[in-house]
Amino acid sequence: MSNAGARRKAPTIHDVAREAGVSRGTVSRVLNGGHYVSPAAREAVDAAIKSTGYVVNRHARSLITGRSDSVGFLLTEPQERFFEDPNFNVLLRGCTQALAAYDIPLLLMLAGTQDERRRITRYITAGHVDGVLLVSSHSGDPVAEELRAAGVPLVACGKPIGQASKVSYVAADDRDGARDMVRFLHQSGRRRIATVTGPLDTPGGVDRLAGYREVLAELGITPDERLIEHGDYSRAGGEAAAERLLAAAPDLDAVFVASDLMAQGVLSALHKAGRRVPEDVAIGGFDDSPAALASSPELTTIRQPWDRIANEMVRVLLAQIGGEDPSAVILPTELIERRST
Amino acid sequence: MSNAGARRKAPTIHDVAREAGVSRGTVSRVLNGGHYVSPAAREAVDAAIKSTGYVVNRHARSLITGRSDSVGFLLTEPQERFFEDPNFNVLLRGCTQALAAYDIPLLLMLAGTQDERRRITRYITAGHVDGVLLVSSHSGDPVAEELRAAGVPLVACGKPIGQASKVSYVAADDRDGARDMVRFLHQSGRRRIATVTGPLDTPGGVDRLAGYREVLAELGITPDERLIEHGDYSRAGGEAAAERLLAAAPDLDAVFVASDLMAQGVLSALHKAGRRVPEDVAIGGFDDSPAALASSPELTTIRQPWDRIANEMVRVLLAQIGGEDPSAVILPTELIERRST
DNA sequence: CATGTCTCTGTGAGCGTTCACAGTAGAGAA
DNA sequence: TTCTCTACTGTGAACGCTCACAGAGACATG
């Protein structure tokens, strides 16, 4: 209360000390946990804080401690792509909550343009946050490299493709998710299982294809390259890939598609070709994105554990802020069965 | 470059000064615009900055200047509500861009829960941002009041209903938008124009109804309270209101609905009642939200100038940070004609 | 009694900047 | 010459806080 709305200069720790009849040191101790403070002193300080309306000046504190007690959540790509995605919202909320347990506020930073990236990088390296949770799908992200070089604790969401060794990341187990799906398709009686991969310069593209190959090998099925086509994670790319598949291997009876969005394209290609899903061809997607539910039939797909990913990202970041070395965490995925298989 | 990734202590202005063979003061001057610095000194400093990898410590700077050169964008409600809305994305991007012109980074802060609000309020009042752009639809938002009391420059998006006088805001002209729509309905030959209002404890609810009433008065149409029903901005609320309207005034030939979402409800009520849109009844919405395009038929609606709102919010905020008094800005709306009229 | 230990308190130093001020050198005017 | 003015430079003092340290009591232990 008091002095509300005034432009008057804010009360300092000094004012509180005077008001409480103690020294700066004692006030500071109360502020930082209250160890080694007598009950009487603590009460006096608490009262003085209330009566003066004191709020710590975090700049002064940060200047000396070197910490800012806040964490950034950095998006290095256009916001819309993410904001529309419910999975992203789960991730963001999960991180916020995980940090809340430590009373650390999370700052969302958007750096969609080159110019923004420059500004935000400067802001971060100047020490405004203790660490950064990075979300970006482009793997060779220069921002990550720059922050890493500046010594900023950093945890990426998803496996970065470049200098993987030096930057922490938390990711779902793409390879194992792919294995689960292909195994599932096989178990439901499919024998000519094709796949539409993601771009092979993304971790998801590579690992999901690897999982596919592994399971076929396990099952003793002779690899058939006609059953493999590449997409670009887009709907149209999926459709085109499916058309190529149908031409090269018209006897396919299942397709494992590396993203739900591409799976939508595959569905429409199959529909045009007069194949029924799932009767003639089973479709397995990946991501459990909104596209999975919006499709008809609804897609069987692989869900990534976004809530756990969020928790792990925060855990790893805080560990790194605490001085530990970068580390990687891989989390298991879950197969969601719907109508397309 | 140099010392990449090291935990080594960062170079200070002192190190740069030594390296460049000048004093702290000169380095500081170069950093802050370079006035009163000889070309030779400036070059030496620039070189030293590069060779040492120096980055200003913003905590130290902020401590003395009292400014943080950053601005917060505060959401005091659950993120999802906004993230899904393209209008919100336009607003956010607009603010980011407007601030970019001043090289000010924008920090998005989410405070959906009570706990988060506490944390973020503390963070803000501690001086971490120079001002706050506030987005919240609940009008009696305690956060706004608290920040205002703490003397934090603040600009709300949309007219706050409570202590309006003391807090700046930028809003679209609800009343005038409503007038335009009702006038438009009248000009297209409708004579029994009903309305579904928003809640009357929101500015939108009040002002849009006021606009409706004004135009009818202008046109010399006798007010008929049977043509007015209240909704709650939800789809279901709109549907219920439309049912009441149809019962009370079955001869209506147009409805001005205070939000697109409610208009969707109205559409479905009319559909159930066997009325054709726009043949039998014309529908005018408000907001130009995604609902307007997702409806069938697509809604004629009132668009708010989100890009201009963003620019004005930033302008007003910066003015306030610069010491000016709070002010209000009202911007004109635009009528978007589609198939529902 | 001396000594040690534990809890509590105050004090000085310093974090990395900016700011105000004092001062220097050179150019031009009186 | 001498003075003023301008362009530039260096220096000490903050800013508000935390940290390390020293010291004061209280109490127990040898």
UniProtKB/TrEMBL annotation, chains A, B:
Entry keyword set: DNA-binding, Transcription, Transcription regulation
Protein name: LacI family transcriptional regulator
DNA-binding among keywords: yes
GO molecular function, one term: DNA-binding transcription factor activity
One Pfam family cited in the UniProt record for this chain: Peripla_BP_3
InterPro entries: HTH_LacI (IPR000843), LacI/GalR-like_sensor (IPR046335), Lambda_DNA-bd_dom_sf (IPR010982), Peripla_BP_I (IPR028082)
UniProt keyword annotation of Nucleotidyltransferase present: no
Gene3D superfamilies reported in the protein's UniProt record: 3.40.50.2300, lambda repressor-like DNA-binding domains
